[in-house]
């Protein structure tokens, strides 16, 4: 067990055997390391080059969890290493390893001695000369510690140290990392005295005057240019084309490289990073090399609603086409059900949905209405795309009304603009709808092995649907049933990402708090936002509404069946016609608004009449209705009286004065004359004393009528 975790150059590694024991397939590790996926970083075990180790820090979290659960029993790797050290299971460094560490950390006398031999090579730089000199010093130290040339203990320790040093420091592989090859090298120099150590350790092919230099840089540039092409050439094709180009340039065979070199060059990480965008168009496989902005999932509902519509992969329904009438029967036409949904981004709940035979504005509006009526809320943001329903006057009006409520509306032209609802359609069909006997498989572009039903199975399904007279209504029931199943199913049952979330989308919606930017909305506001609208005249205190050849009567009286109260008298006296908003699915109540300003007046309950005959005569309801009508009449009379009493004179009395008796007229004249009698006497007195003249008689009635 002490070999499960190893610490090399400050990094932790685990053995492949322990990973397979944890339940991870070996093929997953090998293929992942080759393709650079899931953080599989593999290196050779310095103590045994036949084995491989996997770097712990680079591993994906799910594989670490398997190791901790099944192998390490909850103990972290570093704690495991410390525990093994305390128990004495990890061997401390030997004397030879300590001396070898000094060689690489210090430039001692032995290294300088060997440097003089390699400085004679004018074509070697100082860095390579130092590496060669250190290699010679390492061999000298190893040879000095050999007690028995027939044993491999010393060579095994030295080979393990050499492998660790070369992997960690990036020094060129000048010395063998296997104990047998290392032993052979040292026996040749120190035991058999065939040559000096500086003559045995050289850089490969140095001194070979006949060797042709490989044009690696030129060939890599060619390979990179062909790989960075939207035609996505294979490695074999690139190799053949480059070989052909080299022959046209007159290169010799020794200047070219092997086909394996091309495969390795094209598999390098830098090649992938440079070429993936051109090869795959910047999406899909190339996405892991592109930058992105990490976003945390919101934890409050109604922060974002996404709306989208798509055809559902279910057996096409049949309907009678009136344009294809034969003498025997009507032909049956086939069609697919189209689903529109409103999805809450935080809870993944489907708040509203609607199905139709084609994508249109009505289904989108119905899905929105279901979501709003179910929640009583408007979201902070509504996100949608340019579907076939977009751009109609009705939809643009609704969007403007949403904005009037303070809702942020976002129009996106890319599927990545609303990835949640796009992904939901795939999950819904591949996880839930797949259980349906009428499911026909994924889209034609899907390459999954189980994406499509066989041709025989599809034929069987279509025949069964025709025998059962499969209608659009049947498709709606089938799809709606699976939507409800999705809303009630816990995420952990089918999602790896949310394997620890033991709540269904509908439960999450009930648990989450409302986003502070969401808007509360009343029923009459929903009507103003999404219901059908018409303008009608008020006739005999009743609104007469006709919907699809159905006549509905809505009396202008207060009713317990209506949600909002009205002031019937005020409405009758101020409006000859009103704006009526109604729900085609439920005509039991309508909302009424003013025609000029759009102010809300109240709601009216439907009343198409009472039974006045027979045993079922509703005399009590009739009496109650008449009493309410009387209340309206009394309210109108009271309002009229208040308005008429505001006048100072009674115009009818004035206009009718010449038609009354002489006694009544004299009495009225006297009543108007008496308040002015004192002023008239004073006027007579002043006239009589003016310039000594006698007073003239006063025409009292002329003055009276003049003043009146």
Automatic annotation (TrEMBL):
Task: Tell me where the transmembrane regions lie.
Answer: none
**Keyword Lyase in record:** no
On the tree of life, the source organism's domain of life is Bacteria
Enumerate the Gene Ontology biological process terms: DNA integration
Residue ranges annotated for the Integrase catalytic domain, each copy included: 294-513
InterPro entries tied to this protein = Integrase_cat-core, RNaseH-like_sf, RNaseH_sf
> Which Pfam families does this UniProt record tie to the protein?
rve
Q: Which of UniProt's keywords are assigned here?
A: Coiled coil
* NADP listed as a keyword: no
- The protein's name: Integrase core domain-containing protein
Question: What lineage is on file?
Answer: Bacteria, Pseudomonadati, Bacteroidota, Cytophagia, Cytophagales
């Amino acid at each position: 067990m002490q070999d499960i975790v190893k610490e090399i150059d400050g990094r932790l590694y685990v053995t492949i055997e322990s990973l397979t024991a944890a339940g991870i397939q070996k093929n997953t590790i090998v293929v992942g390391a080759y393709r650079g996926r899931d953080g599989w970083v593999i290196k050779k075990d310095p103590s045994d080059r036949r084995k491989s180790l996997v770097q712990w820090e680079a591993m994906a979290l799910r594989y670490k969890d398997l190791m901790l659960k099944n192998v390490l029993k909850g103990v972290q790797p570093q704690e495991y290493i410390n525990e093994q050290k305390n128990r004495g299971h990890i061997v401390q460094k030997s004397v030879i390893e300590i001396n070898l560490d000094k060689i690489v950390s210090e430039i001692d006398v032995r290294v300088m001695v060997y440097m003089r031999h390699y400085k004679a090579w004018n074509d070697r730089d100082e860095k390579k000369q130092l590496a060669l000199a250190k290699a010679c010093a390492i061999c000298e130290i190893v040879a000095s510690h050999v007690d028995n040339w027939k044993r491999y203990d010393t060579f095994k320790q030295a080979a393990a140290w050499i492998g660790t040093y070369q992997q960690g420091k990036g020094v060129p592989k000048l010395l063998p990392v296997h104990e047998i090859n290392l032993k052979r090298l040292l026996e040749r120099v120190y035991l058999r005295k065939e040559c000096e150590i500086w003559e045995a350790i050289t850089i490969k092919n140095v001194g070979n005057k006949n060797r042709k230099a490989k044009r690696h840089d030129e060939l890599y540039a060619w390979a990179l240019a062909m790989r960075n092409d939207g035609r996505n050439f294979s490695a074999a094709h690139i190799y053949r084309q480059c070989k052909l180009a080299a022959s046209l340039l007159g290169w010799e065979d020794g200047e070219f490289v092997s086909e394996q070199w091309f495969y390795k060059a094209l598999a390098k990480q830098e090649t992938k990073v440079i070429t993936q965008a051109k090869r795959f168009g910047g999406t899909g496989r190339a996405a892991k090399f592109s930058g992105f902005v990490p976003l945390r999932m919101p934890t409050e509902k109604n922060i974002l609603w996404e709306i989208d519509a798509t055809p559902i992969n279910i057996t096409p329904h049949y309907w009678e086409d009136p344009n294809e009438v034969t003498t025997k029967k009507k032909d049956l036409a086939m069609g697919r059900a189209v689903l529109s949904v409103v999805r809450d981004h935080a809870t993944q709940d489907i708040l509203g949905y609607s199905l139709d035979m084609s994508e249109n504005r009505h289904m989108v509006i119905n899905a929105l209405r279901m979501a709003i009526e179910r929640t009583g809320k408007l979201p902070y943001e509504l996100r949608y795309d340019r579907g076939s329903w977009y751009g109609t006057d009705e939809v643009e009006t609704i969007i403007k009304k949403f904005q009037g409520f303070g809702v942020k509306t976002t129009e996106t032209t890319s599927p990545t603009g609303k990835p949640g609802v796009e992904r939901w359609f795939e999950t819904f069909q591949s996880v839930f709808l797949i259980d349906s006997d009428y499911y026909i498989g994924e889209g034609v572009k899907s390459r999954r092995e189980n994406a499509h039903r066989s041709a025989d199975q599809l034929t069987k399904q279509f025949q069964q649907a025709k025998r059962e007279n499969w209608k659009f209504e049947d498709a709606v029931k089938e799809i709606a049933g699976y939507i409800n199943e999705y809303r009630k199913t816990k995420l952990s049952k089918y999602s790896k990402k949310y394997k620890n979330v033991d709540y269904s989308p509908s439960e999450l919606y009930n648990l989450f708090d409302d986003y502070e930017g969401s808007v509360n909305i009343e029923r009459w506001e929903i009507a103003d936002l999404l219901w059908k609208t018409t303008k009608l005249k008020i006739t005999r205190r009743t609104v007469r509404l006709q919907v699809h050849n159905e006549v509905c009567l809505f009396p202008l009286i207060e009713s317990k069946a209506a949600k909002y109260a009205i002031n019937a008298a005020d409405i009758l006296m101020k409006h000859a016609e009103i704006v009526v908003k109604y729900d085609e699915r439920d005509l039991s109540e309508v909302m009424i608004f003013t025609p000029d300003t759009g102010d809300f007046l109240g709601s009216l309950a439907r009343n198409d009449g009472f039974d006045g005959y027979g045993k079922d005569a509703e005399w009590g309801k009739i009496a109650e209705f008449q009493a309410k009508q009387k209340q309206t009449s009394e309210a109108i009379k009271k309002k009229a009286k208040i308005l008429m009493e505001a006048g100072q004179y009674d115009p009818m009395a004035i206009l009718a004065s010449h038609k009354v008796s002489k006694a009544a007229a004299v009495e009225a004249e006297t009543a108007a004359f008496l308040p002015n009698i004192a002023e008239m006497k004073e006027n007579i007195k002043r006239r009589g004393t003016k310039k000594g003249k006698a007073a003239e008689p006063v025409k009292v009635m002329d003055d009276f009528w003049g003043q009146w």
